[in-house]
């Protein structure tokens, strides 16, 4: 499988904003936070054209109540990762046979929530890190992958390094 990295497109922010409004209406609970994460959320960073969204909810014990609302918007609930990550609910959306959105639903202000936002914000604020990440992604995209998760795993060391650095307050 080949990974296609597209140049940054301003339409990705528009797509997130539109989806955010749909999600707010469908989930309809107080104290929800919906964040654009992943490479499509970073101006100037090339990415797979899939909008990554993180939904933070206050009471994760209520997470399964939101599955039907997500499915009503055309999302597929993927439960197979819950053994590894019981603190996250994962959803995908497709259009014309292609994935368009990934959603990670987690409890707000958890380690998962915080590290994803720190990584995104670091890439937004640090051109050198953004350029290094893009270079890594483009090099990895030249390879043939058995699975999309293998490609994601190949980026993990870079991501963890930034997450550790930002957790310490280093920029």
Structural write-up:
With 171 residues, the chain is of the alpha+beta class. It has a single domain (11-166), classed as Beta Polymerase, domain 2 (2-Layer Sandwich), CATH 3.30.460.10. The chain has 6 helices and 5 strands; from the N terminus they run H-E-E-H-E-E-E-H-H-H-H. It has a 5-stranded mixed β-sheet with strand order 1-2-5-4-3, with helices on both faces. A hairpin with a 2-residue loop joins strand 4 and strand 5. The chain is globular, with a radius of gyration of 16 Å. The mean pLDDT is 93.
State the name of the first-level CATH class: Alpha Beta
What order do the SSEs take from the amino end to the carboxyl end, as H and E?
Answer: HEEHEEEHHHH
Distance between the termini: 35 Å
Number of domains: 1
How many H/I helical runs? 6
Secondary structure: helix percent: 40-55%
Physical arrangement of strands within the biggest beta sheet: 1-2-5-4-3
What is the strand content? 15-25%
What would the keywords be for this entry?
GrpB/CoaE, GrpB family protein, Beta Polymerase, domain 2, alpha+beta, 19% strand, 171 residues, NT_sf
Task: Set down the secondary structure blueprint.
Layout: H1 11-27, E1 33-37, E2 51-57, H2 67-72, E3 76-78, E4 88-95, E5 98-107, H3 111-125, H4 127-141, H5 148-154, H6 156-167
Parallel strand pairs: 2-5
Antiparallel strand pairs: 1-2, 3-4, 4-5
Helix pairs in contact: 3-4, 3-6
């Amino acid at each position: 499988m080949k990974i296609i990295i597209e140049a940054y497109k301003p339409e990705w922010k528009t797509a997130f904003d539109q989806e955010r409004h749909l999600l707010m209406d469908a989930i309809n609970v107080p104290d929800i936070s919906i964040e654009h994460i992943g490479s499509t959320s970073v101006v100037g960073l090339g990415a797979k054209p899939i909008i990554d969204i993180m939904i933070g909810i206050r009471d994760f014990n209520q997470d399964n109540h939101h599955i039907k609302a997500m499915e009503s918007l055309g999302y597929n609930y993927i439960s197979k990762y819950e053994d590894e990550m019981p603190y996250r609910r994962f959803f995908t959306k497709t259009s014309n046979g292609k994935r368009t959105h990934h959603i990670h639903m987690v409890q707000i202000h958890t380690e998962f929530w915080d590290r994803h936002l720190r990584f995104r914000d670091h890439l937004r604020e640090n051109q050198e890190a953004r350029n290094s990440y893009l270079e890594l992604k483009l090099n990895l995209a030249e390879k043939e992958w058995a699975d999309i998760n293998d490609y994601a795993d190949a980026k993990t060391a870079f991501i963890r390094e930034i997450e550790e650095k930002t957790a310490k307050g280093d920029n």
